[in-house]
Write a structure and sequence with these properties.
alpha+beta; HU Protein, Chain A; three-stranded antiparallel sheet; 3 helices; 5 strands; about 45% helix; about 30% strand
Length: about 90
């Protein structure tokens, strides 16, 4: 599912004009991004929690050339599914 698909679903199910549906979806995703960039977590009830965590530097290997290279430290986004979502997926 893409962002355009989400906008279409909001447009069809909520009854808002398409440009307003697009603005709302954009606003929600921008808020999520800004919150994660600020280092805070985002908890969506019934879905799960998005958080950021720091990964330390490590030595990696290019699978093609087998050459070792240092992978610099970085921050990554992680997602932990809620129990409700896990149960819903398992039932399917």
């Amino acid at each position: 599912m893409t962002k355009a698909d989400i906008v279409k679903l909001v447009f069809e199910n909520v009854g808002l004009p398409k440009n307003e549906a697009h603005e709302i979806v954009e606003f929600i995703f921008n808020t999520l991004k800004q919150t994660l960039v600020a280092g805070e977590s985002v908890k969506v009830s019934g879905l799960g929690t998005f958080t950021t965590r720091k990964k330390t530097a490590r030595v990696g290997r290019n699978p093609k050339t087998k050459e070792e290279a240092e992978i610099p430290p970085r921050r990554v986004v992680t997602f932990r599914a809620s129990e409700f979502l896990k149960e819903a997926i398992e039932k399917q």
